[in-house]
Design brief:
Helix content: 25-40%
Low-confidence stretches: none
Structural class: mainly alpha
Strand order of the largest sheet: 1-2
Order of helices and strands: HEHEHH
Number of strands: 2
Number of helices: 4
Largest sheet: 2 strands, parallel
Distance between the termini: 29 Å
Length: about 100
Amino acid sequence: HVSSGGLHPDQQIPVGPSYQVPLARQVKQSVSIPVVAVGLITEFEQAEAIVATGDADMIALARTILYDPRWPWHAAAALGAQVKAPDQYLRSQPRQFKHLFG
């Protein structure tokens, strides 16, 4: 999990979408363990691109999950993927995404 910290008021970290991803990319190039990227990852395609380009092996979400706890389901639906949902959720599958809950 790669982050610049941002724990001290004197740090001048430019904040914007994917702003921590370059740090994850550098770490990933230097180690042989899975690397997690963070940093204002809010869009489905943005998250997919980070992993697809190899900048990181995984992404971690914070603010966006606080706002939308079902973000991973929405991302899967938008990107044509499937999720494994608990049985009690199966009736909540949206009609327009008939194959979301694989």
